[in-house]
Amino acid sequence: MTRIPVSDNFYLDEFIDPWTYYLYGSKSLRYIAPQTIAFTQRVREILEVPCTINNWSNHGKMSAKEFLLQPRWKQNRSFKESGLRVFDKALYNKKLKARGMKGDALIKKVVGGTTSQHKFGRASDIKQNAFTSKDVHDIIEDYRRELMELGLTTLEHHEATRSWVHMDGRTTNLNDKLLIVRP
Ligand SMILES: [Zn+2]
Questions:
Q1: Which residues are bridge partners to 168 per DSSP?
Q2: How much distance in Å is there from the Cα of 156 to the middle of ligand 1?
Q3: Alpha carbon of 108 to ligand 1 centroid (Å)
Q4: Is the dihedral of CA 17, 18, 19, 22 positive or negative?
Q5: What is the band of 183 on the pLDDT scale with cuts at 50, 70, 90?
Q6: Is residue 6 one of the residues assigned to a domain?
Q7: N or C: which end of the chain has fewer CB within 10 A?
Q8: Residue 123 DSSP code
Q9: Residue 169 lies in domain
């Protein structure tokens, strides 16, 4: 599929779940906060290593439709809910069915909490192989001012997210301090 670049290192499909991408295509952009793209890109630049958010499109080799037509066990081998997550499963399944999708192409369960910042397009989970989660948190603290200006406000505690780093841009009343939460 033709991919849509949204920053120097990332494409739109990396921030969007495959169901939203299937239903809305390039218009999925409207559901991801610009701050999420901005702070994720800046963290990627600071780390200077490849970072994965979603990889369901396999570098654009697979369309959302092709992805969803695979058996669920195959779908589950890819990251697909590390950026935007579906907010209303029932509504989405109705829309998917209206477009002829059935079985494993429908949404069984959306990962994470019901009011997760991912559902508001304000969060990303990044994975990379060069640093521990704690290292990344320390590096983010070093660049806190700059990253907060781009809209980053919150991290999930590294002990709870050992194989990824959760960043989000929820509104907080902390001006000069990142909020650290336990998921
Ligand atoms: Zn997350």
A1: 123, 154
A2: 8
A3: 19
A4: positive
A5: confident
A6: no
A7: C
A8: E
A9: 12-181
Distance between CA atoms of 151 and 134, rounded to whole angstroms?
A: 21
Give the tokens for residue 144: 């806190």
CA of 113 to the centre of ligand 1 (A): 10
In a domain, 7, yes or no: no
Please choose, from the candidates 141, 140, 139, 183, the residue with its C-alpha nearest in 3D space to the C-alpha of residue 162: 183
Measure 119 CA to ligand 1 centroid, in angstroms.
Answer: 10
Number of domains in the chain: 1
The token pair that represents 158 in the structure block: 């590294």
**pLDDT tens per residue, range 92-122:** 999 999 999 999 999 998 888 778 999 999 9
CA–centroid distance, 67 to ligand 1, in Å, is 22
What the block records as the tokens of 26 is 């390039």
> What pTM was computed for the model?
0.96
Beta carbons within 8 Å of 97's beta carbon, 6+ residues apart? 106
The reply to whether 27 falls in a domain is yes
Distance (Å, whole) CA 34 – CA 63: 23
